Amino acid sequence: QDYDNKIKELKKFIDKNLEVADLKINLYITACNKHCLSPYPSYIIEESSVGVESLALINDFIPPVGLLQHYLKKTRKFTPNEHVINVLHWLLITFTEPSFAKTDSNNYQNILSKVEHVSNIKLPTHMFVLKYKRLNEGLWISERSNLETKFAFLPINMEYAHSVVHLGVHPQIFTEGKHGLGIYLTTDINCCLQSIAAQWVWGKSMLGIETQIMLLVEFINHSSVITYMENKAICKEQNSSEDGNNSGMFYFLPTHKFVRVRYIMLYVKTPSTLKPKSSKTIKDLENLHKRTILYLTITLTAIILAKRVRFASMAKNIFSNIASLPLIKQCLS
After folding, report:
1. Residues near 31 by beta carbon (within 8 Å), at least 6 away in sequence
2. Where are the beta strands (DSSP E) in the chain?
3. CA distances (Å), 267 to each of 170, 187, 237, 284, in order?
4. DSSP letter string over 32-73?
5. pLDDT tens track for 318-330
6. Where in this chain does the record put each PARP16 N-terminal domain (predicted)?
7. pLDDT tens for residues 113-147?
8. CB of 96 closer than 8 Å to CB of 131
9. Which of 202, 245, 252 is CA-nearest to residue 224?
10. Over the range 44-73, which residues count as b (16 or more CB within 10 Å of their CB) and which as e?
């Protein structure tokens, strides 16, 4: 019954938030692969080296979101296994704050105009807005008091995005720079992009498989915030506008309490070929996913057997015999 309820909740969420689901899974899997997952589903799998390896195996069975949506409709007998459902329910349903929403590309320019002295504008491929509950937002307003706030860009490595969007900007991502250890922000988009390398992320994502991520944050302009015109900690090389001067502003924040993430901006270097609304794509994905699961099952069987036999060559022979079965060969072809 619990499994069926989770299926219903996931179906409802994904039907309304397909691209949001893709993004959250993308950030989660990237964090898993880099061994820096926080928050962690400790009530599902223990937080240990063995637990992390087990979680990685479960992640391999997560299908692309378009195919997942197709499976959750229960139009076919094939459905994701219970472990996959538990992880996805934890990730997509349990975390109710902040909520994510895809932003229409027609609004990108207006959103970027929130940044005072924004320079070297380059529109993102995708943008998502983060929304907080009234109580949480009230605490932020209380922290702000009567001080003004400003907007700026925060470059971040993809593997830390999962923790930052769910836990807020935290000291673990502080940068050492000319003003010490803290948070360095900029209003120069190009400079921000130069400071972070494009990363290969979840290969099943429809948003893109090689991506740079940038956060548009709102920060309290406290008296301890330092404003200046150049920052080697962020910018690899000084950017120039048409008149030859760097027009971007830079800010140093000594504490994470002054910052709130408002938007996630994705710059895709290598786009995905997945198109979830195409029936042909769904069929191709279904065949590919079944072959992947079968291959993983065979591989795991071989690993388990390898621990029980005396010689590794015997396990190799067992694997070869299984893979040569007519049914298996047909599925893997």
Report:
1. 37, 38, 159, 160, 161, 162, 163
2. 99-102, 126-131, 149-156, 175-177, 180-186, 199-200, 210-220, 226-228, 250-253, 259-270
3. 23, 16, 20, 27
4. HHTT---S--TTTS-SSHHHHHHHHHHHHTPPPHHHHHHHHT
5. 445 444 444 444 4
6. 13-92
7. 999 989 888 999 999 999 998 888 888 888 788 89
8. no
9. 252
10. ebeeeeeeeeebeebbebbbbbbbbbbbbe
pTM, entire model: 0.80
| Helices and strands in the chain, H and E counts | 12, 10
In angstroms, what CA-CA distances link 170 with 63, 145, 216, 227? 31, 21, 15, 21
Q: Would you call 187 helix, strand, or coil by DSSP? A: coil
Residue 309's pLDDT is 44
Judge whether 64 and 206 are in contact, CB under 8 Å: yes
DSSP state at residue 178? T
The string of pLDDT tens digits covering residues 282-295 is 555 555 555 555 55
Give the amino acid at 157: N
Is the bond leading into 39 cis (omega within 30 degrees of zero)? yes
Structure tokens at 6: 């989770």
Contacts of residues 13-18 at CB distance under 8 Å and 24 or more positions apart, as own/partner, are: 13/92, 13/93, 14/65, 14/68, 14/69, 14/72, 14/92, 15/69, 17/100, 17/101, 17/102, 18/65, 18/66, 18/69, 18/276
Other CB atoms within 10 A of residue 188 CB: 27
User: Please, are residues 248 and 152 in contact by the beta-carbon 8 Å criterion?
Assistant: no
Q: Determine contact, residues 277/314, Cβ cutoff 8 Å.
A: no
Closest-CA residue to 227 (of 116, 92, 82, 86): 116
Classified as helix, coil or strand, 191 is helix
SS3 for 262? Answer: strand
| Coil vs helix vs strand at 193 | helix
